[in-house]
Amino acid sequence: MRKGFLLILIIILIGIAGIIWRFAPKPPQNNPQSPTVAPFTQSSQNNEAKQIVQKPPAPSHTVTASNPTIPPAVMEYVKKIKADPQYDWKQPINFWGKVVDESNKPVSEASVHFVWNDISAKGTSDADMVSDGNGFFSLTDRRGKYLYVTVRKQGYYDSHQNGGFEYANPADGLFTPDQNNPVVFHLRKKGQGADLIHGSQLFGFRTNGPVQYLDLLQAKNTLSPPGDLTAQITREPRNADAKFNWSVTISVPDGGLLETNEEFMFEAPTDGYQQSIEVQMTTNDLNWTAGAKMRFYFKSRNGSIYGWAEATIYPQYQKAAAIDMDYYVNPTGSRNLEPDN
């Protein structure tokens, strides 16, 4: 009798629990995703823009309007994409630019090539024009998503600055054209080149080892002079996050170095040099990386040699360390570092 009563009580309790679960308020099911946009393939170093702009498929988005982490401009963009899958490639394209030389003087009759992706049958359109007497040029009243601009002129070095401009997706950084503030493209007029030594050499090092001398004229490194640069790399073991403390010091015993961001390193400065450049990286650095790159002028061998180099540091290269050095040296003592092409 008692067992039967307990069985009936259990059945009643299960029924009450089911009713409570059925009508209890549920938590909101909201799992927004960031908008995704089909990638745009940019050009290789030779700036062959016609071959690299492709019409991507219409992007798909799953975004809720209540997500506070997505900027309002991106949310509005997503709404427009949902309403019109071809929205990306219908945006107004206007562009104003100016071409100047190394002295910031206008360059006229420079060749300007535009290419942009759109909804045409080919997926891209292009146009060509030349800069006017004041170096100005423009492209207006076109429609598309992404514009790529290339500027060239015979007798000038091409600028590596040539690049692309986004007109549709604010998440990719919208370009804002301004007729009163044109985009400036720098070209450099070719001068009298010199017979330079050009090398691209991977120098190996023992980490935490002795200072090594880099003889750029002979493309070798040794433990004793002569040399144009000296280098030393230190490295500690990796931690649990696979990071490690490391440092590199590049110096010139009887000369100096001068770091620079110049695009055309064709004339070594007369002063401003320092004896060494040092990079230190600890595992606590927010921007920790397992390597570094630097560009610098140098004068060596008591000022009888001038050159420039781009050094890429690999503090953990296989079981040792390495510096990949691309350099130009004028062995005559002249500060002229323009290649004789």
Topology of this protein?
Blueprint: H1 2-23, H2 72-83, E1 91-100, E2 111-117, E3 124-130, E4 136-144, E5 146-152, E6 156-157, E7 164-166, E8 183-186, E9 188-189, E10 197-205, E11 212-215, E12 220-222, E13 229-235, E14 246-251, E15 256-259, E16 276-281, E17 292-300, E18 305-317, E19 320-330
Parallel strand pairs: 1-8
Antiparallel strand pairs: 1-4, 2-3, 2-5, 5-7, 6-9, 10-19, 11-12, 11-13, 13-14, 14-16, 15-17, 17-18, 18-19
Descriptive key words:
341 residues; 5-stranded antiparallel beta sheet; mainly beta; Immunoglobulin-like
What's the SSE pattern? HHEEEEEEEEEEEEEEEEEEE
Terminal CA distance reads 108 Å
Q: What is the residue-averaged pLDDT?
A: 82
Helix/strand class: mainly beta
- Helical proportion, percent range: under 10%
Main sheet overview: 5 strands, antiparallel
Beta-strand portion reads 35-45%
Counting DSSP H or I runs of 4 or more residues, the number of helices is 2
* DSSP strand count: 19
Total tally of structural domains:
2
- Report Rg: 30 Å
Strand order of the largest sheet: 10-19-18-17-15
Question: So what's the overall shape?
Answer: flat
Low-confidence stretches: 1-66
How would you describe this protein?
By secondary structure, the protein is mostly beta strands. It folds into two domains: 49-57 and 71-189, Carboxypeptidase-like, regulatory domain (Immunoglobulin-like, Sandwich), CATH 2.60.40; 197-330, no CATH class. Helix content is 10%, strand content 36%. The chain has two helices and 19 strands. The chain has helices spanning 2-23, 72-83, and strands at 91-100, 111-117, 124-130, 136-144, 146-152, 156-157, 164-166, 183-186, 188-189, 197-205, 212-215, 220-222, 229-235, 246-251, 256-259, 276-281, 292-300, 305-317, 320-330. A hairpin with a 4-residue loop joins strand 17 (292-300) and strand 18. The longest helix is centred in the N-terminal third of the chain and has 22 residues, at 2-23. The protein is flat, with a radius of gyration of 30 Å. It starts with a helix and ends in an 11-residue tail after the last strand. 24% of the residues are buried.
